[in-house]
Amino acid sequence: MKKNLSSHSVFRIGIINKILFLVFFILFIDGSAQKTKKELYHQKNKTLQEISETNRILRETRNQKKATVGQLNALKKQISSKENLITAINTEVGSLDEEIQELEMISESMESDLEALKEEYGKMVYAAAKVSGQYDKLMFLFASETFDQMLMRLKYLKYYTDTRKEQLEHIEKVKSLLLFEKQKLEMKKMRKQVLLSDNINEKKSLEYLKTDKDKIANELSSKEKELNKELNEKKNALRKLENLIEDIIKKEIEESRRRAEEEAKKQGKEHSKDHHSKTDKNKITLTPETKKISDKFEANKGKLNWPLASGFISQPFGSHPHPVLKHVTTNNLGVDIQTTAGQKCRAVFQGKVTAVANVPGLNMIITVQHGEFMTVYARLIDIKVKVGQQVEAKQELGTVLTDNEGVTELQFQIWQNVTNVDPEEWLLKK
Questions:
Q1: Residues 230, 171: one domain?
Q2: What are the tens digits of pLDDT across the range 204-233?
C-alpha cells in the first residue's frame, strides 16, 4: 500500500507541475498577445481616423462635380490609408493564427493531462475498493501488532482518502481550465473570420478608389493647358510669399540687432562695429528671453502641435513631381495640408505675430516669431490676431480658405533664420 501511495504521489506531482507550467505559459502568451493587440489596435484606430478624415475631405471636393488636383490628392491619401488598413488587418490575422495554434496545442495537452488524471484516479478508486474488499477498515486497524503500527495504518487510510479527494479536485480544475481555453479558442476563430471578411471588403473598396483615381488623373491630363496656368499662378504666389518672408526676416534681424545694441548701451558695454560677423547678418540676435523661446521651440522638434485639428499633407516639402503633369517638378518651401471647409488654423507654438498680410493667390498670411524660428500660415480668411500680439500654442489665428474648386488647403512653413526647413520633421507624428 505504501508503494502504491508513493507512485500515486509522484505521478500526481508530475501532472500538477505540468499543469502549472501550462498555466504560466498561458498567462505569458496572453500578456504578449495583449501587448501586440494594443499596438495593432492603436495603429488600426489611427488608420481608421485617417480614412474618416479623408472621406470628409473627399466628399467636399467631389461636390464640385469636376476633376481637381485636390480631389486627386484626397484619393491618393485614401488609397494609402486603405492599404495601411489592409496591412493592419493581415497583421492581426497573422497574430490570431499564432494564438489559435498555441491555444490548440495547450488544449490538446490539457486533454491528455485530464485523461491521465482520470485514469490515475480510477486506479486509486480500484485499489481502495480492493483493500476494502479484503479487510474491514476497523479490522485492518485492530489487527495491528503494536499501537505505533495502528497509528501508521490510520495515517495511511487518511492520506489515501485525502489523496483521492485532491485528485478529484485537480480533475475538476483542469476540466474548468480546459473549457475556458476552448471558449477562448472559439472566440479567436470567430474574430479571425470577421477580419477575413473585413479584408475582402476593404480590398474591394481599394479597387474602387484606384479606379476613381485613374479616372480623375485621366480627366486632369486632358486639361494640361489649364493645369499649367494654375501651376504658374501658384508659383508666382509662392514667390511673392517667399519675398515677403525674406523681407520680414531681414527686418527682424535688423530689429534684433538694434535691440541688442540698445541693451548693450544701457548696460554701459562697448559695442564694436566689427561685432557682427558675416554669419551674424543672416541670424537673429537673441535676447535672454527670445533665446529661451528659441531653445524651447528647437527642443520640441518632432513634437510641435499641428496647425490644424484634422487633415493630411497633400504636398510635401521640397522638390517633387507634379501629381498630373509629366516631366514637371514643383518646389514647396513648406507643406500643403488639405482639410475640411471651415477648419480653424492654430499656432503650433507660443510666439509673437510679426506679420499679417495679403498675398495675391494665397489670400491672407500670418507669420509668428519663435526666437530665431518663424512659422508661416498662408491661405487664410477671418484673421483673429494682429501684428505684435503674443500668441500661445493652439491659439486660433484664422480660418483656412476654401477655393472655388472646393479645396481647403493650408500652406505651412517653418524658417530658421534665413533657411526654410521641412515642417514634417518638426510636427508631431500622427
A1: no
A2: 999 999 999 999 888 888 888 888 888 888
Measured in degrees and rounded to the nearest 5, phi and psi for residue 290 equal: -70, -25
- Predicted TM-score (pTM) of this structure: 0.72
Domain presence at residue 98: yes
User: Which structural domain range is residue 31 located in?
Assistant: 2-221
Whether residues 196 and 321 share a domain: the answer is: no
Q: How many distinct structural domains can be found in the chain?
A: 2
- The beta-carbon contacts of 321-328 under 8 Å, at least 24 apart in sequence, are 322/227, 322/231, 323/69, 323/72, 323/73, 323/76, 324/69, 324/72, 324/217, 324/220, 324/221, 324/227, 325/224, 325/227, 325/228, 325/231, 328/231
Helix, strand or coil, per DSSP, at residue 401? coil
308 and 397 part of one domain: yes
**Chain segment 380-410, per-residue pLDDT in tens:** 999 999 999 999 999 999 999 998 888 999 9
Give start and end residues of each alpha helix (H) in 267-371. Answer: 288-299
Q: Could you tell me how far CA 260 lies from the centroid of its own chain?
A: 45
